[in-house]
Amino acid sequence: MHDQTDWTKSSYSDAHGGNCVECRTDTARVLLRDSQHPAHGHLALSLPEWQAFLRAVWEGEV
Question: InterPro entries, alphabetically (predicted)?
Fold first, then answer.
């Protein structure tokens, strides 16, 4: 069981509510959530999905 301290806030998040994303790894997944509304759930991506997303970002596709 994970607690609230297991989440890492994006280095792009600021104190004024901008870009508030938190993530953590959970076995073979990357979990993402809105740090302003953590009780609203999270998005779970498999490692291949996460890697494909990061690759698309780095290549300017998204």
Answer: DUF397 (IPR007278)
Structure tokens, 51: 């890697």
How many structural domains are present in the chain? 1
DSSP letter at 15 equals T
pTM > 0.85: no
**C-alpha span between 3 and 15 (Å, rounded):** 22
Q: Which domain holds residue 53?
A: 4-58
Phi, psi of 18 (to 5 degrees): -85, 140
Q: In what order do the strands lie in the sheet with 29-34?
A: 8-9, 21-26, 29-34, 43-46
Number of H helices, E strands in the chain: 1, 4
